[in-house]
Design goal:
The structure is a homohexamer of 245-residue chains.
Chain A (H helix, E strand, L loop, with lengths): L2 E2 L9 E6 L4 H10 L6 E6 L12 H15 L8 E4 L6 H9 L4 E3 L2 H10 L3 E5 L4 H11 L9 E4 L6 H4 L2 H19 L4 E4 L8 H6 L6 E3 L1 H14 L14
Parallel strand pairs in A: 2-3, 2-4, 4-5, 6-7, 6-8, 8-9
Antiparallel strand pairs in A: 1-3
Chain lengths: 245, 245, 245, 245, 245, 245
């Protein structure tokens, strides 16, 4: 049963946070970390039989997007907003935008958009080295490369390591990379955590950096940006690329 | 007395909405139109003796920014967030970012950032023809020109016309320009209202367009984006260009 | 049976042309139109039960890509090159590049790359108006927008109209749009036919334009570029974004 | 008395060099270093009570611009050209362009424009590390970032150090940074001195570099470019962004 | 005898204005129109046997550049600066920069650089329609395309028409195109005359436009920018792309 | 006698490979290395009296282009396609495109276009350090700089060293630079050999790199891309910048 539905039955807006891989532990980490006032938060995990346990490239993205769409297509009317919790230009984001006029927020876009108002040199801390070229590609294809982007730095940890390795070891590695590579060598002034699996780790990483550094948790950014759009009645346009086919 | 302080004395976050021109009617229009849950909203109007009645170019921007900074500089610690309510690359925005670590949101940036997630061809409806080249310049200097920007269209109305002309005449002009110039001729799928004085006009203009068009009120966008950043603990970075001098 | 395998059993290279929608008529049109010396040409049509009859947006792209990948994943070792016959940034292209080191050519990229050596102002003639914003988006995301791109022009015909309407009516519409919109109004000097369903129509459209106009059939371009890469031993790199996950 | 007026009463053109900070020593350094044939050179220093002693960010820029504009606004008709002697996208430049049709030259723009005709990889040598991100931002906002810009390098000296530290120590530091960081590590072929306070230091720094290196003094560049525009009757356009409001 | 040497034998700087086509009438028009204080102006016309009478494309550019280089190569030490009087990215410019450390100014670059400080939307008025795509290409290859370039407009006159047709007819055509196409339709605020053969026509064309329009004569711009560089000791860098081979 | 004409008198297409320098050894190296099925390959070497022995900058490019054009101008009708075998934005390429409607392929463009479909971070291995800035400039002027270009790396070998030094020494140097600088330090996933004189060295260099690296021989790429265009009837457009003057 892929949906974790909020028990809240009030009239407040409902947002669905979509984990497009099939690892329930990631969904649960998001459930623990996320709080949103006046919003009913539901969660969805991609099916284990058709979606991969973690998303490690374009093939995984396509297959996981299709797996989610199969289950979600007829259900999209139930929510007032969506968060796609894969830190990439995951095709589920634009596909959902075609299916609904509710706002759909990607955890790649939201923190980069916020960051553009908070600093001038944004760096991304990601998982395995494989994601460095992939994220450079995705950020460029979304035209989110700032003039002074600090770039993408791999922590050397795999996505699944974030859950399976001892927390202390994970944090030491992430803090070191954030401070040494992004802050000191590449002179980032904002660090975006580049994986849904890093939800809730922003405070510890910020404390490892110079005072004044900003560290953004992409899942919280995407949820909050989605909710803020709902509050102002923001809709996905149905005239241009997201017109219903 | 330039500040309109909220009577609310609760512990919820406080946001200051800054009108950098000296026309109180614009501030009052924003006071009427804005609602924000769980936020104490204060308003500020630039002083009549040093700031212009409306901002019509770079000279006005510089002078009004300095006038505001003189009064605000020692007060910035009182708020958790700021909205700069001039639809331009007004220099007050970056100057405030230097003075505080609270988020500072410009009504130019916020709607364009939201728009980038809602559509693919964003157009701006502004006031007098003079603002067409100025806004093209400002949008480009902020690197917010999308690949497929629909551009800036003047309504032919001056800023002060928005308050002084009959409402019906104002609305007909704005609706016609939005539909004919931005929607039909330039194929915008998102329209951003390009003046603080257009606060609250979004619904009427959207209704004049094709179903599925998105129309964004820049003041509400900036307030909501500012509040959402406060909710996630977002701060202005103190390491790069916004470091305190 | 989705594969049309060449009877040729010689040792020459084998290329698979993939129609990612389920309309066999499009595959057959390509089979009739394509000739390649010293190459064994096989064809594949996406399955009717899971893939759409034509691809009209991102949702269709994702679903059709996943449908093809399910059948092709374990078979990719059989071919020396692949052509993805959907005129878009179809996600199947990059997903296949992850699965194989054989060259994979998209019918969007190949004609635009050739065109950059043949002229200086390239225009695209597509099908329904819906594809104008989608192709503008896709071309930009691939960084194939030239400094002087003439843009994307819709013929007003739907993809399936290309097969179902009388040939004469189809040709008149395409020729008129190419000449009036792309050649005369937008001053294109190269016209790329923007749909796999237009395979073989290049000569007639060129004859409707000024002498010296170049009109490129995207399917033939992609096939020939793929074959030429095979001839020089060109491989998909396994180090960067296309590394096998 | 902020103006140092030339004693020359001939009919030759008059140019005002504006030091927008209040440190007279910088103005005097420019008075000593600048020579211009057939031009009456006047100098202006910003008022000590309202302008900062040196400009260290956006707040200082805005405040100093407003302080200058208050004194200059009604006087601009007296000069045939203006030089704004702050190496940044100082808002005084565009504000003056609105107030006059005489050419207004910024000491940031002029050397970068000249440099684009003299070499292919331009580097900037600035003062404190704080100016590295600020100048990267300003150069980008002016669209003066070349394809192969060598970037901005801080000498580690504060603006006021240029006047207060022993000359030998200042020169050694500047020469070392120019040679080691800009020439050797970043392969600049043109070096622009990035502070008005470096006026007259170009020869010594060039001699510390490889033969054939070009080092540009930004104040002399701006003055000469301004004078050259006066010679050809060049005016600030009154139609676009610099139209008088 | 291709050189017209100034009779002036004083010690002031010598500049060579190079007409890379073989039509002496164009050289003579420049001789009549140009004045430069304190500079010895020499002129050179490309040889009639090897260079074309006018430059109408890339072939002509290459052949004329080689013809000039053959005669100029061993002579370049005689001048302190050079103007290449063909309004294009003529290869003679960069070839000369390799041969000398004196500044070499192209009549394409100089007015566009000046224009970037005088307005925000620069348009080019050229001769025959053939030059529209060529100049779009050249301007883009020099990275001189502004964010808001008004583009290139052909007057429909051939280069040689400028000399052979009645002056009144030439002027009416140029004035109409400048006003109707560049000023009114494309909203240029600076117009650059796009042919050496238009030397001296700037005043008449400006008078045909709205008050406040700026019209730049490219030959005078290039000469004055060259002279101004000589005044500040500006040299072509010998380290990067212009290093002597 | 500058032409080496194929003995093949069949009806298959004829392609002329142009070596625009006068060193016959380079032409002979290409004759040995190139194979093309069903194509008659002819070769041309620039004349020793007017063209340089190797091309080391813009002056050499212009002079060699003119030397070739003088001999080729009246002969271009004899071939169905052309390869310009100088790894630069050699002006002969565009000049020939004006003279013929046959496809003209540059050995700079062809491998970069192919590479864009094979990987995401393309690096160029060139000869002497002088070519680093020149190629950065040329690649930028052709708008072939990808978002994630790995840049240009000099091997420290001069063009003529490739022929005169012991093969083993040449190969060791090239392999080391490819692996250490382009693969390891700059993370290229495709390496383009940046000199016609490196024809045939691709396999050895690829074997010195990580498995999965792609190394492209520019001469073979250009020949194959040219032949592939001939196969699909691709022509140089005669409407835009390549229109016959």
């Amino acid at each position: 049963m892929p949906f974790h539905l909020s028990a809240d039955q009030s009239a407040c807006p409902r947002v669905l946070v979509i984990n497009p891989n099939s690892t329930v532990a990631f969904t649960e980490a998001m459930m623990s970390a996320l709080r949103a006032t006046d919003v009913q938060l539901d969660f969805y995990t991609a099916p284990t039989d058709t979606a991969p346990a973690s998303i490690e490239g374009t093939y995984d993205s396509v297959v996981s997007a299709a797996a989610c769409l199969k289950e979600l297509r007829t259900e999209v009317g139930k929510w007032d907003g969506f968060v796609v919790a894969c830190f990439s230009a995951h095709p589920l984001t634009n596909a959902l935008r075609e299916l609904t006029s509710a706002p759909v927020m990607s955890i790649l876009e939201a923190p980069l958009l916020y960051a553009s108002t908070l600093g001038s040199r944004v760096g991304i801390l990601t998982t395995s080295p494989r994601w460095e070229p992939l994220l450079n590609h995705d950020v460029a294809s979304l035209h989110l490369t700032g003039q002074n982007a600090a770039g993408v730095v791999s922590s050397g940890l795999k996505v699944l390591d974030l859950e399976s390795l001892p927390r202390e070891q994970v944090m030491r590695r992430l803090c070191d990379k954030a401070r040494e590579e992004l802050q000191d060598r590449r002179q980032a002034d904002v660090i975006v955590l580049g994986c849904a699996g890093m939800v809730g780790l922003d405070t510890a990483i910020r404390e490892a950096c110079r005072p004044g550094m900003v560290v953004l948790d992409p899942v919280r950014c995407a949820l909050e940006m989605c909710v803020s759009l709902i509050r102002i009645g923001g809709k996905t346009s149905k005239i241009g690329i997201y017109a219903t086919a």
